[in-house]
Amino acid sequence: MMSTSYQPDVLGPDFEQRVLPQPADYEGPVHSTLVRLRPTGPSARAVLYVHGFNDYFFQREMAQRYQQHGYHFYALDLRKYGRSWQPHQHPNNVRHLREYFADLDAALAVIKAEGHDTVLLSAHSTGGLVSVLYAQEGENRGVLSALFLNSPFLAMHLPRAAKHLALPMAAAVGRFAPNLKIPGNLATTYGESLHRQHRGEWEYHLPWKPVAVFPITIGWVRAIYEGHRRVREGLGLRLPILVMHSDRTVQARGWSEDYFRADGVLNVRDIRTLAPRLGSRVTVRAVAGGMHDLMLSPQPVREMVYQELFAWLSATLG
């Protein structure tokens, strides 16, 4: 049942969720889910966090850090992800990244209605790609005060030939056969580096964020390809943007301890090259020893990330 008020959340009594109904799409009924850390006092400042691919919001520590610095914390599980994934849907499926704009519109409308006039949009990986496109043309983009991008997905991490030949061909096919699944399985090594049942330190719901990544469709490839094309052309955003990423990319083909101290998903050179094309007020910071999701890096590294982030926010938003 669609809810218009907050209900208990899977993360425990400090968190609550609100279902955001959306119009049905090509797979049937759709909704997204807004999660918030229960406020402990008044604040006109808020942050909205948007997760990456094969992901959902579970980072309690991150929410608490924002709250400690005076931000009411919200997170959005996009349609077909995590709390919002429904049995009739292919997980994480999308045909155009604009499909997510309605989810962000609804979340930002709630945040604004709850009394916030300074809003940081914080996003990881694929969520970063969605968020910068939203900041350019989303209906409620005027609510946003700044962007923080944690290892944003600005380009495919592929060999040159695949990136310039196979990828455009796949995107073209995606227009006519969007539900065609990509054969083969994506590597499990990054997922193994995170979950405590494997090699990592984190606990989360594996059916929503499996170690063996959900299969992707050609329609998803087309959607990402079009988003990346727009980034390459330049977005011209005027709001302040902080981009943080690891200082290097994992080079190993199989398991390596480097997954604990480098980006095991994206090529950090792509992030470094493309980030300045997002707008005129972009700050880029490389994090020594950072993992792909910087907020899931080993504790000393993520402490550096939080220090850098909140120092930037203090200087940028006051």
TrEMBL record:
It comes from the Bacteria. Pfam families: Hydrolase_4. The keyword Hydrolase applies. Residues 44-296 form the Serine aminopeptidase S33 domain. Gene3D superfamilies: alpha/beta hydrolase. InterPro entries: AB_hydrolase_fold, Hydrolase_4, MAG_DAG_Lipase. Keywords: Hydrolase. GO terms for molecular function: hydrolase activity. PANTHER family: PHOSPHOLIPASE-RELATED (PTHR11614). This is Alpha/beta hydrolase. It comes from Hymenobacter humi. The lineage of its organism: Bacteria, Pseudomonadati, Bacteroidota, Cytophagia, Cytophagales.
